[in-house]
Amino acid sequence: MTGEEMNDHIKNLYYINQSVEQLLKNKHYSSEVKQSAINLRKSMQPCLAEFKQSAAQLKTLLQAGFDDLDHAEDVWHSKPKIARVATDEIWEQLEQLRKHHCGIRLLGSQCKKEAVKQAQAFWKKILGPIEAKWFVGKGSQAPKIIGKDNKNNFIMEIRNVVASQFQETIKIIKKSLDIIYKKLANLHLDYVLQYVIFLDKRAKDKARTRINLILNEINAKFRSLILHSPCQSRNLLEFNNPFKPAVQFLLNLNYNDIDWQHFCRFKKEVHTKIIEVINTIIEDRINLAIKSIDQVILFYTDFLERQYRYQQETAQQRNAEKAWIDQQRQQLERVSSSIDAILAAPEF
């Protein structure tokens, strides 16, 4: 029901109310008819209230239409600004981004390989003295099995080397991430923000939010080793040493003695965890970098596509679009005025 139709119904209700007032003033009507007239007026009051309530709801719903027309006009005003933007720098940025898209992935693979190599070399270096002391010493002086009396001292040394390995692994990963981050920073992903300002307000807010989210995530994740991955039961480097289970294995043995086989298993578990931690964290950051580059490329290509379309528009087409927007606004304002009249109608 339109505002004008509702106004017609409101007018009919007021005609009924006026007729009731005239009847009540006329002494020629019986008291029974006058009572019926009073009852009729009471019956019409909820109808008026219902019309007003519906009008209030329509007023709220109508605002969405005005918002859409405001957006359409905002887009209309943004078109010539986008059409006039010089795009030489955009094309240069796109060329750089596409060129380094695969390069970032290759750099990540190289960083993972080198990081694993360094971490494993460090593990081998700090574990050598432990092996020489407890398992493969000269002659028969070093025991092949660590008994109950020596177990606590052995475990203490193991804890120390594992702690050293943990700190060294963190240092190696951070160095690798720093290399990748510097490469990513050289791509100047934030340059895209200088083109966001030419968009209409709705598209501008959406694009700025998305780009800032990407830039903030890059800064945060390349400065932190914490993983926020649903496939990880616990973050690899958040609270616990990732090599703790390997040490726990030696501590929780049901035997009093630790032999060479137990030690070899321990070494292998730490070795495997080194690879897992390094590969998981660096791969996570590489995926973020690739996703971020993709998002910026997508914005640039969309911007250029818009610009091309807007440059093809004629003055006649632009005038027709503006005329249509103005016409729809007039129609909505007419409906809005009718609704305002209903809301302003006095009670009876």
Describe this entry's structure for a reader.
The protein is elongated, with a radius of gyration of 38 Å. It has 348 residues and is an all-alpha fold. It has a two-stranded antiparallel ribbon with strand order 1-2. It contains 9 helices and 2 strands. The chain has helices at residues 3-25, 31-84, 88-134, 148-185, 193-196, 201-222, 244-251, 260-312, 315-344, and strands at 145-146, 258-259. The two termini are 23 Å apart.
Structural class: mainly alpha
The poorly predicted ranges are 228-234, 236-240
Our Rg estimate from Cα atoms comes to 38 Å
The biggest beta sheet reads:
2 strands, antiparallel
Briefly say what this structure is.
The protein is mainly α and 348 residues long. The chain is 80% helix and 1% strand.
